[in-house]
Amino acid sequence: MPVPAARREEGDAPCQDAWVTDPAANASPGWRPGTVRDAAGGILALMLATFLAVTTELLPVGLLPLMSDELDVTESTAGLLVTVYAFMVAALAVPLTLATVRLPRKGLLLGTLVAYTVSNALVAVAPTFAVVAAGRAVGGIAHALFFSVSIGYGARLVQPLFTGRALALVTAGASAGFVFGVPLSTSLGAAVGWRTAFAVLAGVCALTTVLVALLLPAVAGGGGARRDDHGQAARRSRLAVVSTANALVYLGQFSVYTYVSVLLLAAGLSVAGVGPVLLGLGALGLVGTWYAGVSLDRRPRRTVLVVLVTLTLGLCALGLAFPALAPVLVAAAVWGAGFGGVASIFQTASIRTRGASPDVVGALVNSTANIGIGGGAALGGAVLAGYGVGWLPFVGAALVLVGLVVVVVARKAFPSTV
C-alpha cells in the first residue's frame, strides 16, 4: 500500500517521488517515516557516522608527505592508500549490499563503525607500509557497506517529499569530515605524528559507535524492489546516467584533492599551514551543502547545474593561479564551496530515479563515487609523476566538465521538478 504523501510546506514544489520499496514496510514496529523534524535524532546519528566514515577514508590525504617519509615510499605510492581503499569499495559495495539486504540495518551500520575503529587502530600501530595497507583494507570493506546502507537509511527515515533535505543533512556529516575531521587530524599529525592522528580517530570512532547505537532508530532490511515492469527500464537507464555522472565528477575531484597537500606545499604553504587551509576549504564546503539542502526539493536541476559549474570554475581557476599562493587559496575557496554540494545532488538524483530499491541505489552511488575516488587518486598520481602538480587542476576540471555535459544532456535523469 503506498505511503500517503506528506503535507507540503508553503513554497515546496509538488512532489512526484515514489518509492520502489515502501518505506513504512521496511520500518521497525513503532517507527513511521515523517518529516525531517520527526527524524531529527536518526539524521543526527547518520551525520555523526558519516563524519567518521569520510574522515577515515580521507585522512591519508593530509598526511601523505609525513607517511611517505616514515614508511620510505614515494608520495604517489602513498596515494595508493586512497586508491586501493576506494577500489575495494567500488568492487564490493553492490555485492555486499545484496548479500546483507535482509539483515537489520542498524546492526549492520554499527558493524561498519566497529570496523572503522579496528582499521584506524591497525594503521596507527603498523610497522610497515604493507600492514598500513592491510589496515586500510579493513576500512575499505566497512566503507563498501556503510554508504550503501546510510543513503537508503536516510531516505527511509522521512517521507519522499523530504528526501532532498534529509540526505543533504546526512551529507553535512561528510562536509564536516572535510571541515573538521581531515584538517584537524592533519594538524594533529603534523604536530605529534601521523600515527597519533590515526589512534585518536580510532578512539573517536569507538565513541561514535556508542552514540549512534543510542540515537538511531532501527529499520528492517532493504527488501526487494516492487514488481513494476512498466517504465522500469527507463528508470534504470536514468539511474545509470546519474551513476555515470557521479563517477566522472568524483574522478575529476579526487585527481586533485588526493594531492591537495602536495599542491599547497608546492605553492609555498608551510607544512603547519596545510591543516588550517584544509579546515577553511571544508568550512566553505558547508556552504555548498547548505545550498543543496535548501534547493534540491524545489529546484533540483538548477541546483545540480550551479554546483557543478562552481566546481569546474574553481578547478580551472586553481590551475591558472598556480603557483602563486594567494590566488591559489582564493581559487581553492571556490573549488571547496562547489564540492560541498556534490554528494547531496547525486544521492538525491539517484534515489529519485526510482531505478532500484533505496539500498541498491545507495550501493550504486557508493560504488561509482569510489570508482571516481580511486581512479582519481591513481590518475592524479600518474599526472603528478609524469607532468607535475601544476597540471592536476586542469585534468580535474576537464573530467568534471564531462560530468556536467552529461547532466545538461540528460534532462530526464536530472529533471527540473520533483
Question: Your description of this structure?
Answer:
The protein has a single domain, classed as Growth Hormone, Chain: A. The protein is built from 15 helices and no strands. The chain has helices spanning 40-71, 75-78, 80-99, 105-125, 129-156, 163-192, 194-215, 232-257, 260-266, 271-295, 300-321, 325-339, 342-353, 358-386, 392-409. Helix 8 packs parallel to helix 14 (358-386), helix 11 (300-321) packs antiparallel against helix 13 (342-353) and helix 11 runs antiparallel to helix 15. The protein is globular, with a radius of gyration of 20 Å. Residues 1-30 have low confidence and may be disordered.
Question: What is shown here, in short?
Answer:
This protein is mainly α. It has 15 helices and no strands. Helix 11 runs antiparallel to helix 15 (about 390-410).
Which regions are unreliable across 5 or more consecutive residues at pLDDT < 50? 1-30
Structural class based on helices, strands and sheet pairing = mainly alpha
- Under CATH, the homologous superfamily reads MFS general substrate transporter like domains
Rg estimate, integer Å: 20 Å
CATH third-level topology: Growth Hormone, Chain: A
Distance between the termini: 21 Å
Count of individual helical segments: 15
The number of strands is 0
Assigned CATH architecture: Up-down Bundle
What is the element string, with H for helices and E for strands? Answer: HHHHHHHHHHHHHHH
The helix fraction, in percent, is: over 70%
